[in-house]
């Protein structure tokens, strides 16, 4: 198990690498008063700057959220792949659609009927469609 000092050194090195890559910029966030008090207390007890504590907390939060999201996305991807593999040519979906059409054909008021064009615009559109 790593000692606290080696963990601190590793974090410090990681932090130094991050500083070299991207320039830091000031960002303003409004914290709830209870969170602000908790941070200040923790800062006093640990003798650490508020900025470092906030950065560590956000880093840990992002790591946890990213891991959770990654797991959710992997699960979703597996489900989508399984669905696609279960009926790759959509034969089942096509059959269900055809069955539904056949079941409700008697209720369809325009099933098998053509309607006459009402005006010249409709006639022209139909001519264009038919070729």
Task: Explain what you see.
With 131 residues, the chain is mainly α. It has a domain at 33-106. The protein is 71% helix and 0% strand. It contains 5 helices and no strands. It has helices at residues 4-21, 33-46, 50-86, 91-103, 120-130. The longest helix has 37 residues, at 50-86.
Helix content estimate: over 70%
Helix and strand pattern: HHHHH
Indicate the low-confidence ranges by residue numbers.
none
User: Average pLDDT value?
Assistant: 85
- The DSSP helix count reads 5
User: Pairing-aware structural class of the strands and helices?
Assistant: mainly alpha
Shape: elongated
Distance between the termini: 79 Å
- Let me know the number of strands: 0
Percent of residues in beta strands? under 5%
Q: What about the largest sheet?
A: none
Rg: 32 Å
Write out key terms for the chains shown.
131 residues, mainly alpha, 5 helices, elongated
What is the element layout, followed by pairings?
Layout: H1 4-21, H2 33-46, H3 50-86, H4 91-103, H5 120-130
